[in-house]
Specification:
mainly alpha
Length: about 120
């Protein structure tokens, strides 16, 4: 059953793979690569953590428990929940959620749960 679920998720995610392959032939691919690297550079050298307390609007933070990209265990040295919760706690009006069995693409992997949380938050 788990193998079927994994294959099914891979098929559903195929559009992301196809998109990444197509993007290499885009006329602005070089600019795209530059901006992606600048974004990573900014995350590493100018983290936003110290500025989160300035977020003055109600905020929802949703993370997958298996997110291995952000926060990155090699850069941050710990599990996602530890860093995600620390960030959420810095924001004065933040609703924090961890979704089990989801990774960096939590909004795709667990779309119903994410949508339900957002709908409830917006009420």
């Amino acid at each position: 059953m788990k193998i079927f679920q994994k294959i099914s998720l891979q098929r559903k995610a195929q559009f992301m793979i196809d998109d990444r392959i197509k993007i290499r032939t885009a006329s602005d691919f070089t600019a795209y690569c530059y901006h992606v690297t600048q974004g990573v550079h900014a995350m590493v050298d100018s983290p936003v953590f110290d500025f989160l307390a300035k977020v003055s609007k109600p905020t929802i933070c949703i993370f997958g428990t298996n997110d291995n990209l952000i926060p990155n265990k090699f850069l941050n040295g710990g599990p996602t929940k530890k860093y995600a919760k620390a960030c959420a706690e810095k924001m004065p009006d933040c609703t924090f959620h961890m979704i089990n069995k989801a990774g960096h693409f939590v909004m795709f992997e667990k779309s119903k749960e994410v949508n339900d949380l957002i709908k409830e938050f917006l009420k």
